[in-house]
Design the sequence.
């Protein structure tokens, strides 16, 4: 059996880790949107193990990725995501000296490559890689472009500031984050006609042409960031390696603003688009602190997302529902685009010398609402945002085409890879001294239905609360919201003591909060106890670390 150039460390697996930004369960076989078309991911599912109850540990980019790469819960490191952009994960005491997954592999004889959105934008630590992605022109950038631009607006750090697409309805024309559409719809905004790529020029360069993303037609255009990343991985897989490798590819799509080539929109004719399950006034029985400011009683912008889009759409000839369908179409199109890049990487691996000894992981940093509970975003603690695609193929270990429904989360990937690749179990012995919070999934890969699991029978989700936290300061556990998901139930305890309970056997859409239903008192009490055990463990871990 050909393995290419033999690794210098014998019996070591290679790793190809693919993480998509804002990708919910809109994936073939995951039970999300029924019209999803993700043939590449589906191909991988048939080769490996699909975890249908896989979740993130924080429903927002910064803390989710920091937790994933360091193997520490937000309840341990204190980084829940409050004002995430102003709070760099490396400046939190527990993570300053944390040995990331990539660093652990690098320290144990691996060449570590990264491309695309691996860390949250602006929070990169490229020292974890063998080669710096910022200095390699072949790697794809962490960018949501190309985007419309007015030709004159720049950020304070010297890069162009994107604009909303002029095709959007009134109220959305100036909404950079809310815009979506096909690359074929070349925008014209004030002084600039065309697309802008914020990765193309150099910071501080004020020449508009330095930032132009070329688009003549589908056959004559620049590559998008995710396409560059996929090509980099393909080229690297085609190289000869004298050491085992760890490759991580961060796909930017389907993060907003959602633009993709027309061919991916064509997969989803607008008149056939199905809206997601929706219940009017669904938020009535939910914990109000999750979407309302307790001081003013006003709803957050997130819970106004769908009503705002519908209202803006009603001002157009097509109407509000038309624009909701356009939004859904763009999410499906960008997901299909992301899947296409994954397909290129999987095909390159299959043609390489490393097919038989490379572990593949495909997942997302968190899910995303598509209108459920009036949300069209992340940063909630409901199912559509905590649940992520979660597929692992480990040659010679994982069962082909099998499903595991045991609750697992992103925190478990670090110890799983350590176990599969035979790395030292405590990466932080020379770092922050903290043990990893997750558990190896190896037994579930070997026996998806009855694998022995030393971890908990629930997964732990974290969501930042409303209490103001000083910059780069660990947030108190009590100031935040937490949820546990078992095979059947989700229980949530908010910072103000309010609760939610959902039975997924009878209510997969989480439409009926059972927290005040006396019939479920025992079940709620059991789940609350499981939550408190996990949080108390995090608290003790924090206190022990601080004492030392």
Sequence:
């Amino acid at each position: 059996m050909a393995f290419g150039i033999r690794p210098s460390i014998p019996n070591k697996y290679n790793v190809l880790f693919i993480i998509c930004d804002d990708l919910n369960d809109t994936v073939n076989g995951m039970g999300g949107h029924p019209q999803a078309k993700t043939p590449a991911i589906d191909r991988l599912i048939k080769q490996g193990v699909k975890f249908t109850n896989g979740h993130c540990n924080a429903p927002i980019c910064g803390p989710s990725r920091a937790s994933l790469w360091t193997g520490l819960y937000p309840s341990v490191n204190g980084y829940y995501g409050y004002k995430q952009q102003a709070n760099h994960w490396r400046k939190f005491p527990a993570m300053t000296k944390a040995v990331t997954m990539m660093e652990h592999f690098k320290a144990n004889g691996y060449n570590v490559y990264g491309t695309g959105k691996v860390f949250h934008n602006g929070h990169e630590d490229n020292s974890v890689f063998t080669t710096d992605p910022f200095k390699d022109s072949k790697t794809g950038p962490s960018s949501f472009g190309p985007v419309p631009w007015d030709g004159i607006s720049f950020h304070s750090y010297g890069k162009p500031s994107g604009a909303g697409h002029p095709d959007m309805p009134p109220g959305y024309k100036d909404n950079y984050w809310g815009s979506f559409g096909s690359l074929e719809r070349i925008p014209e905004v004030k002084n600039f006609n065309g697309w802008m790529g914020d990765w193309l020029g150099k910071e501080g360069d004020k020449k508009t042409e330095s930032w132009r993303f070329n688009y003549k037609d589908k056959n004559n255009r620049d590559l998008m960031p995710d396409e560059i990343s996929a090509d980099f991985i393909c080229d690297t897989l085609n190289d000869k390696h004298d050491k085992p490798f760890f490759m991580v590819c961060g796909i930017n799509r389907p993060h907003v603003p959602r633009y993709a080539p027309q061919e991916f929109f064509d997969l989803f004719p607008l008149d056939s688009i199905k809206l997601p399950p929706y219940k009017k006034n669904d938020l009535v029985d939910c914990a109000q602190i999750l979407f309302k400011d307790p001081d003013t009683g006003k709803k957050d912008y997130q819970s106004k997302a769908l009503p705002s889009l519908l209202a803006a759409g009603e001002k157009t000839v097509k109407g509000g529902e038309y624009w909701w369908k356009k939004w859904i179409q763009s999410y499906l199109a960008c997901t299909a685009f992301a899947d296409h890049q994954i397909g290129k990487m999987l095909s390159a691996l299959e043609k390489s010398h490393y097919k038989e000894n490379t572990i593949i992981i495909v997942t997302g940093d968190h899910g995303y609402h598509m209108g459920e509970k009036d949300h069209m975003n992340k940063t909630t603690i409901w199912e559509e945002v905590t649940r992520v695609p979660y597929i692992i193929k480990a040659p010679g270990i994982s069962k082909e085409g099998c499903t595991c429904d045991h609750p697992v989360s992103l925190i478990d990937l670090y110890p799983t890879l350590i176990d599969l690749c035979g790395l030292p179990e405590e990466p932080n012995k020379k770092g922050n001294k903290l043990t990893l919070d997750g558990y190896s999934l190896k037994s579930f890969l070997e026996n998806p239905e009855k694998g022995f699991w030393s971890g908990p029978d629930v997964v732990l989700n974290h969501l930042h609360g409303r209490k103001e936290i000083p910059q780069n300061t660990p947030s108190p556990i009590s100031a935040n919201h937490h949820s546990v998901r078992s095979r059947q139930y989700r229980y949530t305890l908010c910072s103000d003591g309010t609760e939610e309970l959902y039975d997924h056997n009878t209510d997969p859409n989480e439409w009926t909060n059972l927290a005040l239903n006396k019939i479920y008192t025992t079940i709620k009490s059991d789940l609350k106890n499981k939550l408190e055990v996990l949080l108390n463990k995090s608290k003790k871990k924090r206190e022990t670390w601080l004492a030392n």
